[in-house]
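Retry 2 of 3 after timeout on previous attempt. Resubmitting C-alpha coordinates to design endpoint.
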Protein backbone atom coordinates (compact mmCIF):
# COMPACT_ATOMS: atom_id res chain seq x y z
CA UNK A 1 0.00 0.00 0.00
CA UNK A 2 1.15 3.54 -0.72
CA UNK A 3 1.64 5.95 2.21
CA UNK A 4 -1.28 8.09 1.00
CA UNK A 5 -3.62 5.12 0.84
CA UNK A 6 -2.61 3.88 4.28
CA UNK A 7 -3.13 7.38 5.70
CA UNK A 8 -6.67 7.71 4.39
CA UNK A 9 -7.66 4.16 5.22
CA UNK A 10 -6.30 4.59 8.75
CA UNK A 11 -8.19 7.85 9.05
CA UNK A 12 -11.46 6.19 7.99
CA UNK A 13 -11.04 3.26 10.38
CA UNK A 14 -9.91 5.36 13.36
CA UNK A 15 -12.60 7.97 12.72
CA UNK A 16 -15.21 5.20 12.58
CA UNK A 17 -14.01 3.79 15.91
CA UNK A 18 -14.06 7.17 17.63
CA UNK A 19 -17.42 8.16 16.14
CA UNK A 20 -18.89 4.91 17.45
CA UNK A 21 -17.51 5.78 20.88
CA UNK A 22 -19.01 9.27 20.56
CA UNK A 23 -22.46 7.87 19.79
CA UNK A 24 -22.40 4.96 22.25
CA UNK A 25 -21.14 6.94 25.22
CA UNK A 26 -23.70 8.91 27.25
CA UNK A 27 -23.67 12.73 26.87
CA UNK A 28 -20.97 14.39 29.02
CA UNK A 29 -19.77 10.97 30.22
CA UNK A 30 -16.06 11.69 30.18
CA UNK A 31 -13.76 13.51 32.62
CA UNK A 32 -14.58 17.25 32.77
CA UNK A 33 -16.34 17.12 29.39
CA UNK A 34 -18.97 19.77 30.33
CA UNK A 35 -16.24 22.26 31.28
CA UNK A 36 -14.53 21.69 27.93
CA UNK A 37 -17.87 22.06 26.10
CA UNK A 38 -18.45 25.44 27.76
CA UNK A 39 -14.89 26.54 26.93
CA UNK A 40 -15.35 25.49 23.28
CA UNK A 41 -18.65 27.36 22.98
CA UNK A 42 -17.00 30.49 24.43
CA UNK A 43 -13.93 30.29 22.15
CA UNK A 44 -16.15 29.83 19.09
CA UNK A 45 -17.72 33.18 20.03
CA UNK A 46 -14.37 34.92 20.41
CA UNK A 47 -14.15 34.76 24.21
CA UNK A 48 -10.71 33.21 24.68
CA UNK A 49 -10.02 33.92 28.34
CA UNK A 50 -13.25 34.90 30.06
CA UNK A 51 -13.33 36.60 33.45
CA UNK A 52 -10.93 34.80 35.85
CA UNK A 53 -12.31 33.50 39.13
CA UNK A 54 -9.72 34.16 41.88
CA UNK A 55 -11.22 31.44 44.04
CA UNK A 56 -10.50 28.45 41.83
CA UNK A 57 -7.53 27.11 39.85
CA UNK A 58 -8.06 27.83 36.17
CA UNK A 59 -11.69 28.86 36.64
CA UNK A 60 -13.38 31.75 34.88
CA UNK A 61 -16.78 32.99 33.73
CA UNK A 62 -17.93 33.18 30.11
CA UNK A 63 -21.19 33.92 28.32
CA UNK A 64 -22.63 31.10 26.25
CA UNK A 65 -26.09 29.89 25.16
CA UNK A 66 -28.01 28.14 27.93
CA UNK A 67 -27.72 24.80 26.13
CA UNK A 68 -23.98 24.67 26.88
CA UNK A 69 -24.43 25.85 30.45
CA UNK A 70 -26.96 23.02 30.78
CA UNK A 71 -24.19 20.55 29.88
CA UNK A 72 -22.79 21.06 33.39
CA UNK A 73 -26.00 19.59 34.86
CA UNK A 74 -26.21 16.55 32.55
CA UNK A 75 -23.88 14.10 34.34
CA UNK A 76 -24.93 15.00 37.88
CA UNK A 77 -27.28 12.03 38.30
CA UNK A 78 -24.95 9.29 37.03
CA UNK A 79 -21.33 10.49 37.43
CA UNK A 80 -19.51 8.52 40.15
CA UNK A 81 -22.53 6.18 40.40
CA UNK A 82 -21.72 3.13 38.24
CA UNK A 83 -25.12 1.54 38.81
CA UNK A 84 -27.03 4.62 37.61
CA UNK A 85 -28.02 4.63 33.94
CA UNK A 86 -27.92 7.69 31.70
CA UNK A 87 -31.75 7.72 31.50
CA UNK A 88 -31.77 10.16 34.42
CA UNK A 89 -30.44 13.08 32.33
CA UNK A 90 -32.49 16.23 33.12
CA UNK A 91 -34.55 17.89 30.37
CA UNK A 92 -32.93 20.58 28.26
CA UNK A 93 -33.64 24.28 29.01
CA UNK A 94 -36.79 25.88 27.64
CA UNK A 95 -34.82 28.57 25.80
CA UNK A 96 -31.51 26.91 24.82
CA UNK A 97 -30.35 29.89 22.70
CA UNK A 98 -30.67 32.46 25.51
CA UNK A 99 -27.26 33.77 26.62
CA UNK A 100 -26.13 33.18 30.19
CA UNK A 101 -23.00 33.49 32.32
CA UNK A 102 -21.42 30.26 33.48
CA UNK A 103 -18.12 29.19 35.01
CA UNK A 104 -15.68 26.66 33.56
CA UNK A 105 -12.53 25.38 35.25
CA UNK A 106 -10.49 25.03 32.03
CA UNK A 107 -10.68 28.68 31.01
CA UNK A 108 -6.88 29.10 30.88
CA UNK A 109 -6.34 26.26 28.39
CA UNK A 110 -4.91 27.03 24.95
CA UNK A 111 -7.83 27.90 22.61
CA UNK A 112 -6.56 26.04 19.51
CA UNK A 113 -8.38 22.74 20.11
CA UNK A 114 -11.55 24.49 21.31
CA UNK A 115 -11.73 26.70 18.21
CA UNK A 116 -12.11 23.53 16.13
CA UNK A 117 -14.50 21.46 18.26
CA UNK A 118 -16.54 24.56 19.12
CA UNK A 119 -17.67 25.20 15.53
CA UNK A 120 -20.93 23.19 15.87
CA UNK A 121 -21.99 25.47 18.74
CA UNK A 122 -22.52 28.23 16.17
CA UNK A 123 -25.46 26.25 14.79
CA UNK A 124 -28.94 26.72 16.29
CA UNK A 125 -28.85 25.27 19.81
CA UNK A 126 -29.88 21.64 19.83
CA UNK A 127 -28.75 18.70 22.02
CA UNK A 128 -27.49 17.04 18.82
CA UNK A 129 -24.74 19.69 18.82
CA UNK A 130 -23.07 17.82 21.68
CA UNK A 131 -22.64 14.85 19.35
CA UNK A 132 -21.43 17.12 16.55
CA UNK A 133 -18.77 18.56 18.86
CA UNK A 134 -17.65 15.03 19.69
CA UNK A 135 -17.61 14.25 15.98
CA UNK A 136 -15.32 17.22 15.31
CA UNK A 137 -12.97 16.00 18.03
CA UNK A 138 -13.06 12.44 16.70
CA UNK A 139 -12.25 13.54 13.13
CA UNK A 140 -9.41 15.78 14.31
CA UNK A 141 -7.84 13.06 16.46
CA UNK A 142 -8.30 10.41 13.78
CA UNK A 143 -6.55 12.68 11.29
CA UNK A 144 -3.62 13.12 13.67
CA UNK A 145 -3.35 9.43 14.59
CA UNK A 146 -3.57 8.40 10.94
CA UNK A 147 -0.28 10.20 10.28
CA UNK A 148 1.36 7.92 12.83
CA UNK A 149 -0.01 4.85 11.04
CA UNK A 150 1.20 6.30 7.74
CA UNK A 151 4.74 6.32 9.13
CA UNK A 152 4.65 2.50 9.11
CA UNK A 153 4.90 2.60 5.31
CA UNK A 154 8.16 4.57 5.48
CA UNK A 155 10.21 1.84 7.16
CA UNK A 156 10.99 -1.72 6.26
CA UNK A 157 10.54 -4.68 8.58
CA UNK A 158 7.84 -2.71 10.36
CA UNK A 159 5.57 -5.43 11.74
CA UNK A 160 6.73 -5.10 15.34
CA UNK A 161 6.61 -1.32 15.06
CA UNK A 162 3.01 -1.67 13.88
CA UNK A 163 2.26 -3.85 16.88
CA UNK A 164 3.76 -1.16 19.12
CA UNK A 165 1.52 1.46 17.50
CA UNK A 166 -1.60 -0.65 18.01
CA UNK A 167 -0.57 -1.46 21.59
CA UNK A 168 -0.13 2.26 22.30
CA UNK A 169 -3.62 2.97 20.92
CA UNK A 170 -5.37 1.68 24.03
CA UNK A 171 -9.16 1.78 24.49
CA UNK A 172 -8.63 4.91 26.62
CA UNK A 173 -6.96 6.66 23.68
CA UNK A 174 -9.94 6.03 21.39
CA UNK A 175 -12.44 6.83 24.15
CA UNK A 176 -10.85 10.20 24.89
CA UNK A 177 -10.51 10.92 21.18
CA UNK A 178 -14.28 10.66 20.89
CA UNK A 179 -15.02 13.22 23.62
CA UNK A 180 -14.67 16.97 23.99
CA UNK A 181 -11.44 17.12 25.97
CA UNK A 182 -8.10 18.72 25.03
CA UNK A 183 -6.28 15.71 26.53
CA UNK A 184 -7.43 13.80 23.46
CA UNK A 185 -5.45 15.99 21.07
CA UNK A 186 -2.42 15.94 23.36
CA UNK A 187 -2.39 12.13 23.41
CA UNK A 188 -3.08 11.64 19.71
CA UNK A 189 -0.43 14.17 18.66
CA UNK A 190 2.09 12.66 21.07
CA UNK A 191 1.52 9.12 19.79
CA UNK A 192 1.85 10.14 16.15
CA UNK A 193 4.92 12.24 16.97
CA UNK A 194 6.64 9.33 18.75
CA UNK A 195 6.20 7.13 15.67
CA UNK A 196 7.19 9.83 13.18
CA UNK A 197 10.32 10.92 15.05
CA UNK A 198 11.55 7.37 15.63
CA UNK A 199 10.91 6.48 11.97
CA UNK A 200 12.77 9.62 10.84
CA UNK A 201 15.83 8.98 13.03
CA UNK A 202 16.04 5.18 12.98
CA UNK A 203 15.11 4.66 9.33
CA UNK A 204 16.50 7.70 7.49
CA UNK A 205 15.63 8.40 3.85
CA UNK A 206 16.80 11.74 2.37
CA UNK A 207 14.13 11.60 -0.34
CA UNK A 208 11.35 11.53 2.25
CA UNK A 209 12.85 14.17 4.55
CA UNK A 210 10.66 17.17 3.55
CA UNK A 211 7.35 15.28 3.87
CA UNK A 212 8.41 13.68 7.13
CA UNK A 213 9.53 16.99 8.61
CA UNK A 214 6.31 18.71 7.53
CA UNK A 215 4.28 16.09 9.37
CA UNK A 216 6.50 16.27 12.44
CA UNK A 217 6.22 20.06 12.53
CA UNK A 218 2.41 19.90 12.38
CA UNK A 219 2.28 17.25 15.10
CA UNK A 220 4.70 19.13 17.34
CA UNK A 221 2.71 22.37 17.04
CA UNK A 222 -0.59 20.61 17.78
CA UNK A 223 0.97 18.87 20.78
CA UNK A 224 2.58 22.01 22.20
CA UNK A 225 -0.69 23.95 21.92
CA UNK A 226 -2.98 21.36 23.47
CA UNK A 227 -2.43 21.63 27.27
CA UNK A 228 -0.27 23.38 29.85
CA UNK A 229 2.33 20.62 30.27
CA UNK A 230 2.41 19.76 26.57
CA UNK A 231 5.55 21.80 25.70
CA UNK A 232 7.41 19.85 28.40
CA UNK A 233 6.16 16.58 26.95
CA UNK A 234 7.24 17.72 23.48
CA UNK A 235 10.80 18.26 24.72
CA UNK A 236 10.86 14.91 26.55
CA UNK A 237 9.59 13.04 23.48
CA UNK A 238 12.13 14.71 21.20
CA UNK A 239 15.06 14.08 23.56
CA UNK A 240 14.04 10.46 24.12
CA UNK A 241 13.66 9.81 20.39
CA UNK A 242 17.12 11.23 19.74
CA UNK A 243 18.62 9.19 22.60
CA UNK A 244 16.97 6.04 21.25
CA UNK A 245 18.37 6.52 17.74
CA UNK A 246 21.77 6.53 16.05
CA UNK A 247 23.48 9.92 16.32
CA UNK A 248 24.11 9.88 12.58
CA UNK A 249 20.36 9.99 11.90
CA UNK A 250 19.93 13.05 14.10
CA UNK A 251 22.86 14.87 12.52
CA UNK A 252 21.54 14.10 9.04
CA UNK A 253 18.30 15.90 9.92
CA UNK A 254 20.16 18.92 11.30
CA UNK A 255 22.42 19.14 8.24
CA UNK A 256 19.58 18.71 5.76
CA UNK A 257 18.60 22.21 4.65
CA UNK A 258 15.18 21.01 3.58
CA UNK A 259 14.39 20.33 7.23
CA UNK A 260 15.30 23.86 8.43
CA UNK A 261 12.02 25.61 7.51
CA UNK A 262 10.05 22.94 9.36
CA UNK A 263 12.31 23.15 12.41
CA UNK A 264 11.83 26.93 12.41
CA UNK A 265 8.06 26.52 12.11
CA UNK A 266 8.09 24.09 15.03
CA UNK A 267 9.98 26.59 17.16
CA UNK A 268 7.54 29.38 16.26
CA UNK A 269 4.50 27.21 17.05
CA UNK A 270 6.02 26.03 20.31
CA UNK A 271 6.93 29.60 21.21
CA UNK A 272 3.29 30.60 20.67
CA UNK A 273 2.22 27.84 23.05
CA UNK A 274 4.66 29.04 25.72
CA UNK A 275 3.44 32.59 25.18
CA UNK A 276 -0.17 31.57 25.82
CA UNK A 277 0.78 29.58 28.94
CA UNK A 278 2.67 32.58 30.35
CA UNK A 279 -0.05 35.08 29.41
CA UNK A 280 -3.05 33.03 30.60
CA UNK A 281 -1.33 31.49 33.62
CA UNK A 282 -2.31 27.98 32.50
CA UNK A 283 -0.06 26.32 35.05
CA UNK A 284 -0.78 28.76 37.89
CA UNK A 285 -2.58 27.46 40.96
CA UNK A 286 -5.24 30.17 40.86
CA UNK A 287 -4.89 31.17 44.48
CA UNK A 288 -2.46 31.82 47.28
CA UNK A 289 -3.80 29.23 49.72
CA UNK A 290 -1.65 26.15 50.31
CA UNK A 291 -3.09 22.64 50.33
CA UNK A 292 -0.73 21.69 53.16
CA UNK A 293 0.68 18.78 51.17
CA UNK A 294 4.48 18.71 51.20
CA UNK A 295 6.62 17.55 48.30
CA UNK A 296 7.54 14.36 50.18
CA UNK A 297 3.91 13.56 51.06
CA UNK A 298 2.86 14.22 47.49
CA UNK A 299 5.66 11.98 46.24
CA UNK A 300 4.60 9.09 48.47
CA UNK A 301 0.95 9.40 47.50
CA UNK A 302 1.82 9.63 43.80
CA UNK A 303 3.88 6.45 44.00
CA UNK A 304 1.03 4.64 45.74
CA UNK A 305 -1.41 5.84 43.08
CA UNK A 306 0.75 4.78 40.11
CA UNK A 307 -0.88 1.33 39.63
CA UNK A 308 -4.23 3.10 39.37
CA UNK A 309 -2.82 5.51 36.81
CA UNK A 310 -1.61 2.59 34.68
CA UNK A 311 -5.04 0.96 34.84
CA UNK A 312 -6.64 4.24 33.82
CA UNK A 313 -4.34 4.56 30.80
CA UNK A 314 -5.66 1.24 29.48
CA UNK A 315 -9.32 1.99 30.09
CA UNK A 316 -11.23 3.72 32.89
CA UNK A 317 -14.16 5.49 31.33
CA UNK A 318 -16.85 7.97 32.30
CA UNK A 319 -15.80 10.20 35.17
CA UNK A 320 -13.21 7.54 36.03
CA UNK A 321 -16.11 5.57 37.53
CA UNK A 322 -16.29 2.87 34.87
CA UNK A 323 -13.48 0.40 35.37
CA UNK A 324 -13.21 -2.75 33.29
CA UNK A 325 -13.37 -6.26 34.77
CA UNK A 326 -10.02 -7.66 35.83
CA UNK A 327 -9.93 -10.33 33.14
CA UNK A 328 -10.27 -7.68 30.44
CA UNK A 329 -7.35 -5.67 31.81
CA UNK A 330 -5.25 -8.84 31.87
CA UNK A 331 -6.21 -9.64 28.28
CA UNK A 332 -5.22 -6.18 27.07
CA UNK A 333 -2.00 -6.09 29.09
CA UNK A 334 -0.95 -9.50 27.75
CA UNK A 335 -1.07 -8.13 24.20
CA UNK A 336 0.35 -4.68 25.01
CA UNK A 337 3.34 -6.37 26.67
CA UNK A 338 4.27 -8.39 23.56
CA UNK A 339 6.41 -5.72 21.79
CA UNK A 340 8.08 -4.87 25.11
CA UNK A 341 8.99 -8.49 25.86
CA UNK A 342 10.16 -9.05 22.28
CA UNK A 343 12.37 -5.97 22.48
CA UNK A 344 14.09 -7.36 25.56
CA UNK A 345 14.56 -10.74 23.82
CA UNK A 346 15.48 -9.58 20.32
CA UNK A 347 17.47 -6.46 21.20
CA UNK A 348 20.94 -6.73 19.70
CA UNK A 349 22.79 -4.70 22.30
CA UNK A 350 22.65 -4.21 26.05
CA UNK A 351 21.85 -0.57 25.34
CA UNK A 352 18.57 -1.68 23.70
CA UNK A 353 17.23 -3.10 26.95
CA UNK A 354 18.19 0.12 28.75
CA UNK A 355 16.36 2.18 26.12
CA UNK A 356 13.14 0.22 26.54
CA UNK A 357 13.35 0.21 30.34
CA UNK A 358 14.22 3.92 30.33
CA UNK A 359 11.18 4.80 28.19
CA UNK A 360 8.89 2.98 30.59
CA UNK A 361 10.56 4.40 33.70
CA UNK A 362 10.38 7.95 32.35
CA UNK A 363 6.63 7.61 31.70
CA UNK A 364 6.10 6.54 35.31
CA UNK A 365 8.62 8.67 37.20
CA UNK A 366 8.15 12.06 35.51
CA UNK A 367 4.39 12.30 36.29
CA UNK A 368 5.09 11.30 39.89
CA UNK A 369 7.60 14.13 40.23
CA UNK A 370 5.28 16.63 38.52
CA UNK A 371 2.39 15.83 40.86
CA UNK A 372 4.62 15.97 43.94
CA UNK A 373 5.87 19.38 42.80
CA UNK A 374 2.32 20.71 42.23
CA UNK A 375 0.75 19.11 45.31
CA UNK A 376 1.33 22.10 47.60
CA UNK A 377 -0.55 24.53 45.32
CA UNK A 378 -3.23 22.44 43.54
CA UNK A 379 -3.38 19.18 45.49
CA UNK A 380 -3.20 15.61 44.22
CA UNK A 381 -5.10 15.99 40.97
CA UNK A 382 -3.11 13.78 38.58
CA UNK A 383 -5.00 11.28 36.44
CA UNK A 384 -3.72 8.44 34.28
CA UNK A 385 -4.68 10.19 31.04
CA UNK A 386 -2.20 12.97 31.83
CA UNK A 387 0.61 10.40 31.59
CA UNK A 388 -0.49 8.90 28.28
CA UNK A 389 1.54 11.28 26.04
CA UNK A 390 4.65 9.75 27.61
CA UNK A 391 3.42 6.21 28.21
CA UNK A 392 2.44 5.62 24.57
CA UNK A 393 6.15 5.90 23.78
CA UNK A 394 6.91 2.77 25.85
CA UNK A 395 5.56 0.14 23.40
CA UNK A 396 6.64 2.30 20.45
CA UNK A 397 10.30 2.44 21.48
CA UNK A 398 10.06 -1.29 22.18
CA UNK A 399 8.64 -1.93 18.72
CA UNK A 400 11.52 -0.12 17.03
CA UNK A 401 14.11 -1.96 19.15
CA UNK A 402 12.49 -5.34 18.48
CA UNK A 403 12.38 -4.48 14.76
CA UNK A 404 16.15 -4.63 14.50
CA UNK A 405 16.35 -8.13 15.95
CA UNK A 406 13.34 -9.39 14.02
CA UNK A 407 15.38 -9.98 10.85
CA UNK A 408 16.55 -13.20 12.50
CA UNK A 409 12.95 -14.42 12.85
CA UNK A 410 11.45 -16.41 9.95
CA UNK A 411 9.05 -14.32 7.87
CA UNK A 412 5.95 -16.42 8.60
CA UNK A 413 6.57 -16.10 12.32
CA UNK A 414 7.03 -12.35 12.01
CA UNK A 415 3.53 -12.12 10.62
CA UNK A 416 2.01 -14.26 13.37
CA UNK A 417 3.82 -12.20 16.01
CA UNK A 418 1.89 -9.19 14.70
CA UNK A 419 -1.48 -10.71 13.84
CA UNK A 420 -2.10 -12.82 16.95
CA UNK A 421 -1.51 -10.05 19.53
CA UNK A 422 -3.35 -7.61 17.26
CA UNK A 423 -6.42 -9.85 17.27
CA UNK A 424 -6.20 -10.10 21.07
CA UNK A 425 -6.01 -6.30 21.25
CA UNK A 426 -9.02 -5.99 18.94
CA UNK A 427 -11.02 -8.37 21.15
CA UNK A 428 -10.02 -6.31 24.19
CA UNK A 429 -11.13 -3.10 22.48
CA UNK A 430 -14.52 -4.60 21.62
CA UNK A 431 -14.92 -5.87 25.18
CA UNK A 432 -14.10 -2.41 26.59
CA UNK A 433 -16.60 -0.77 24.25
CA UNK A 434 -19.31 -3.28 25.17
CA UNK A 435 -18.70 -2.85 28.88
CA UNK A 436 -18.93 0.94 28.71
CA UNK A 437 -22.08 0.71 26.58
CA UNK A 438 -23.68 -1.64 29.10
CA UNK A 439 -22.75 0.62 32.02
CA UNK A 440 -24.79 3.55 30.66
CA UNK A 441 -27.70 1.51 29.27
CA UNK A 442 -28.35 -0.69 32.31
CA UNK A 443 -25.77 0.21 34.96
CA UNK A 444 -22.70 -1.81 35.93
CA UNK A 445 -24.65 -4.38 37.96
CA UNK A 446 -27.64 -4.47 35.58
CA UNK A 447 -28.54 -7.48 33.47
CA UNK A 448 -26.82 -7.87 30.12
CA UNK A 449 -29.86 -9.49 28.49
CA UNK A 450 -33.04 -8.50 30.38
CA UNK A 451 -34.40 -5.00 29.56
CA UNK A 452 -35.27 -2.59 32.35
CA UNK A 453 -37.65 0.36 32.68
CA UNK A 454 -34.64 2.55 33.52
CA UNK A 455 -32.62 1.72 30.39
CA UNK A 456 -30.92 4.53 28.50
CA UNK A 457 -31.13 4.31 24.72
CA UNK A 458 -28.26 5.69 22.60
CA UNK A 459 -29.16 7.39 19.30
CA UNK A 460 -28.33 4.13 17.46
CA UNK A 461 -29.39 0.67 18.75
CA UNK A 462 -26.74 -0.84 20.99
CA UNK A 463 -26.39 -4.10 19.03
CA UNK A 464 -25.82 -2.16 15.82
CA UNK A 465 -23.14 -0.06 17.54
CA UNK A 466 -21.41 -3.12 18.98
CA UNK A 467 -21.44 -5.00 15.67
CA UNK A 468 -20.10 -1.94 13.84
CA UNK A 469 -17.33 -1.53 16.42
CA UNK A 470 -16.29 -5.18 16.09
CA UNK A 471 -16.08 -4.79 12.30
CA UNK A 472 -14.06 -1.59 12.73
CA UNK A 473 -11.52 -3.26 15.02
CA UNK A 474 -11.19 -6.19 12.62
CA UNK A 475 -10.65 -3.70 9.80
CA UNK A 476 -7.86 -2.06 11.78
CA UNK A 477 -6.08 -5.41 12.21
CA UNK A 478 -6.40 -6.13 8.46
CA UNK A 479 -5.14 -2.65 7.59
CA UNK A 480 -2.04 -2.99 9.78
CA UNK A 481 -1.28 -6.42 8.36
CA UNK A 482 -1.69 -5.25 4.76
CA UNK A 483 0.25 -2.02 5.27
CA UNK A 484 3.30 -3.85 6.64
CA UNK A 485 3.26 -7.00 4.50
CA UNK A 486 4.79 -5.42 1.38
CA UNK A 487 7.67 -4.02 3.40
CA UNK A 488 8.62 -7.33 4.97
CA UNK A 489 12.09 -8.15 3.59
CA UNK A 490 14.42 -11.08 3.80
CA UNK A 491 17.10 -10.95 6.51
CA UNK A 492 19.87 -10.59 3.96
CA UNK A 493 18.44 -7.47 2.34
CA UNK A 494 17.51 -5.15 5.21
CA UNK A 495 20.04 -3.15 7.22
CA UNK A 496 18.82 -2.88 10.80
CA UNK A 497 20.29 0.44 11.81
CA UNK A 498 21.10 3.81 10.31
CA UNK A 499 24.83 2.99 10.39
CA UNK A 500 24.26 -0.24 8.49
CA UNK A 501 22.05 1.61 6.03
CA UNK A 502 24.85 4.06 5.27
CA UNK A 503 27.34 1.23 4.82
CA UNK A 504 24.95 -0.54 2.43
CA UNK A 505 24.41 2.57 0.31
CA UNK A 506 26.76 2.77 -2.75
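Retry 2 succeeded. Sequence:
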Amino acid sequence: MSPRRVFWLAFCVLASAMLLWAIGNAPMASPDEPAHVVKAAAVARGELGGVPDPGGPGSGSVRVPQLYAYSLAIPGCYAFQPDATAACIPPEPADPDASTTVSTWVIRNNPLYYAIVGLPTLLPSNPMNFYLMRAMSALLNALVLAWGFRALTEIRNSRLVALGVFAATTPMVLFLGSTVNSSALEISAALALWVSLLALLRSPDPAKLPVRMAGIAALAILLANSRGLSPLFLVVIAVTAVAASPWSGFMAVLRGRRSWPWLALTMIGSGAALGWIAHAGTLASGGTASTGISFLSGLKQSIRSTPGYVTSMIGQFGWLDTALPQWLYLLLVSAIAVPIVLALILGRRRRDALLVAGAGAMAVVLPVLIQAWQAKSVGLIWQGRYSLPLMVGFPLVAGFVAREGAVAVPAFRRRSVLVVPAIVLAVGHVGAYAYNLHRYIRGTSGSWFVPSAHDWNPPVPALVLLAAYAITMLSLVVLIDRATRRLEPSPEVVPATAAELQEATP
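Attempt log closed. The longest strand covers residues 60-65.
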